[in-house]
Amino acid sequence: MGNLVFVAKETVADETRVAASVETVKKMKGLGFDIVVEAGAGAPSRIRDGEYEAIGARVGSAQDAAQADVILKVRRPTADEIAGYKSGAIVIAIMDPYGNEAALVDMARAGLTSFAMELMPRITRAQSMDVLSSQANLAGYQAVIEAAAVYDRALPMMMTAAGTVPAAKVFVMGAGVAGLQAIATARRLGAQVSATDVRPAAKEQVASLGAKFVAVEDEEFKAAETAGGYAKEMSKDYQAKQAALVAEHISKQDIVITTALIPGRLAPRLVSREMLKAMRSGAVAVDLAVERGGNIEGVEFGTVAHVEGVKVVGYPNMAGRIPASASALYAKNLVTFLETMVDKNTKNLGLNRADELIKATMLTDGGEVVHPNFVDPDQPTVNKGDL
Description:
The chain is α/β, with parallel strands linked by helices. Helix content is 30%, strand content 17%. The chain contains twelve helices and 17 strands. The strands form three sheets. Strands 3-2-1-4-5-6-16-17 form an eight-stranded mixed beta sheet, with helices on both faces. The chain has a seven-stranded mixed beta sheet with strand order 11-10-9-12-13-15-14. Helix 4 links the parallel strand 5 and strand 6.
């Protein structure tokens, strides 16, 4: 296989990230790759074309993708982009495959070997390649910053000669990567923070960050986690008790941040209009699941909606709102994965299809959709004679 890597400029509206940083271009050069970066690709992330050129990359155009052996992107390529890639090229990106099976077929028909970074297995070896964690971490941080920007009061308690400003009360729903970072950020800004999660193990994590844990902690809750660390489905009775507790708690909060997002499914509804109505006028809610329909009733994609007197923030791609940081982490995830495809002795590019990382993330290969989650056994994806 060849050794030309093409770093694409993103074409999706409002995507500000780039798939390579100056640091990762240096790394790829050291691995034996020649690099072409599409002109302007790094500009939204504060990386000038000249910075790539200074470390040995060539700045080119979209047409250079036709010669590339590896194409690095942030978002899944569009049909127009796919038409410009050569058959056999490796494409690595955040593919968003769930619900977009037709796009996977397009990549298969084009003969592309494609990888979805968000399908990276959560194992020790792959921690440095985990784009969900790297980007969710930043999304959780930025959610608090966006909340503070539209909240018309100070977050920390301030004692002044003119009087005392009380600390804002922030409630984080979901204590995964994004939620934990939101908790930590709100705490750093001086807010009074509480959080909830359906996993009992989250209680200790929330407490370790100095926040209060909110949940109905009965016997069912204590047994609500599988041996693998996943949450069990709770009974209707428990769900009703938990919903009542959360509704009562939300009524006392100034800021609510929701983080519940399940790949391939609509986001679960966590906050109803009735809950928002119970909050004080001018309160803020930030929905990190707006791209999958949202956790908050009334959220509007891409804007701040006013719902029952509450400012509901529905910005998609929250990590992309701080692109310099998001790109640096994403690019490192990518190059670390790409490195696993390179023979360290010969510096030749080759795929070990038995590698668990390759098997977990490969979507298309050899003219077919190959990932088991997206293969329809009754419907052949490609007529290989058309390739």
